[in-house]
Design brief:
The chain is of the alpha+beta class and 102 residues long. The chain has a domain of 53 residues. It has five helices and two strands; from the N terminus they run H-H-H-H-H-E-E. It has a two-stranded antiparallel sheet with strand order 1-2.
Length: 102
């Protein structure tokens, strides 16, 4: 399945871009810091908790911003990592999906 097919739920055209929402999503300094962190060369997908630790900001704040970036398709889900029996969602920038490990 291609990245496009995965994003739009299985074929067909992707939903239209919400340009206003996209502009608002990218203008918060915390969101810009998240994007900057995730676009570093060689950066692997991270959980919201790892992003919060790296940026030294509260997890709740980061989780909220990550959800907005996911909703605006700036970030995408890149799987899950088990941490202490809990599945934590990994995120990366759209278009930077790492190859499957195997």
């Amino acid at each position: 399945m291609t990245n496009q097919t995965a994003r739009d739920g299985g074929g067909g055209e992707p939903p239209p871009v919400d340009w206003e929402g996209l502009a608002r999503a990218e203008t918060y300094p915390v969101r810009i810091a998240i994007i900057d962190l995730l676009q570093r060369d060689g950066q692997q997908p991270l959980t919201a908790k790892e992003i919060a630790a790296e940026l030294q900001l509260p997890y709740g704040n980061i989780a909220q911003h990550v959800n907005v970036l996911l909703g605006n398709r700036i970030l995408i889900s890149a799987g899950h990592r088990m941490t202490r029996g809990t599945a934590a969602r990994l995120v990366c920038l759209e278009g930077r999906v790492p190859p499957p490990s195997g």
